[in-house]
Amino acid sequence: MRYLPKIAQESRWLGPCFCDGMDAGGTATTGYPPNRRPSRWKHESSDLSREENQQPFWRQEVAGDSPHNSFFSAAAGLCTLRRGFQGATRQMPLMRRVRPEALDWLEEAKADFRHAMEAYRAGSDNWACLVAEQAAEKAIKAFLIGVLRKRPIHTRDLTVLHRQTRGRLKMPASTTNALAELSAYCTGARYPNSGLNRPSLSITAVQAGRAMRTARGVLAVVKRETARSG
Question: 76 is in which domain, residue-wise?
Answer without folding.
Answer: 6-91
